[in-house]
Every structure is written in C-alpha cells, then in structure tokens.
C-alpha cells in the first residue's frame, strides 16, 4: 500500500515525536514539533545550572582552593573547549584561536592585576557562546544554552565571592 506524500510526512512526524517523547519521558502527546526544542533547551539549561552549582559547592566546601586561580583556570578552560569543536574546520579554528588569545589575556591579567577582568571574561564568554554558533556550525546543538547558563551563573559568584568589592581576595 502506497502512502501519499502528505500522509507519509505526517507519519514520519508522529513517529519522530513519539521517539522524542519516549526519550525525554514526555507523557502527553504533542502535535507541535517545537515542543522538542523547548524540552532540549530546558535540558541544556538545567545541566548548566547543575554544573555551576557543583563548581560553587566544590569551591565553598574546599576552603583551601584559591578561588582566584580557579576563576582564571575556568575562563581559560572554557575558551579552549572550542578548539575541540573547531579542529576540523580551519575558518572556525582561526576564529576560536583569536578568541582564546582574548580570554587567556583576560585570565592572566585578572589573576595578576584585577580579578574583575575574569568576571568580565566570563560574561564575554557568555556572549561568545551566543554569537559564535551564528558564524560556525561546529558547536553541538544546545551547547550554547548550557555554556551561557554556566557563564552567567559563575560570573556573579566570582564577583561577589572573590572580587575586591564583595568577598575574599
């Protein structure tokens, strides 16, 4: 039996939605394919919150950790993650390499001169997370939401806990 193009498309959409609902544990039936994106985005957002919470709990639990150094290393580490995404795309790798120079400089001068540069670097990295995927397709879907969430939670944490204004030095 041949299914016409309209019925075939509906069948594929329904099968796809059923698989998404099964994978993400969605109980209700959905007619809107946009529901998948909202569920996925929420998952990435929640993972960003959980990662940030884990970092903050670790830093608050282990008093001997130098929060300034951890902030600096965090900024450098999150910048270098993009090298792994861009490794096979020369154009993206060049853009990522230039951004790494900026984030390493902010990290270094933030560690040695003014810690607020690291806070600013985390906020700028959040903007980078939102802008870079518009110029390159190498970033996995959802990574931008995950990472911008972590950046925008960790920046105020470091500002209030470590900067000269609000916390320990």
Task: Give an overview in words.
With 169 residues, the protein is mainly α. It has 6 helices and no strands. Helix 3 (67-86) runs antiparallel to helix 4 (90-112) and helix 3 runs parallel beside helix 5. The radius of gyration is 21 Å and the shape is globular. Residues 16-29 have low confidence and may be disordered.
In round numbers, the mean pLDDT is 82
Contiguous helical run count: 6
Indicate the percent of residues in helices: over 70%
Total individual domains: 2
Q: Which segments are poorly predicted (pLDDT under 50) over 5 or more consecutive residues?
A: 16-29
Instruction: Return the structural class.
Output: mainly alpha
Shape: globular
Largest sheet: none
Strand content: under 5%
Report the strand count: 0
Alpha-carbon Rg, integer: 21 Å
How far apart, in Å, are the first and last alpha carbons? 74 Å
How do the SSEs run, as a string of H and E? HHHHHH
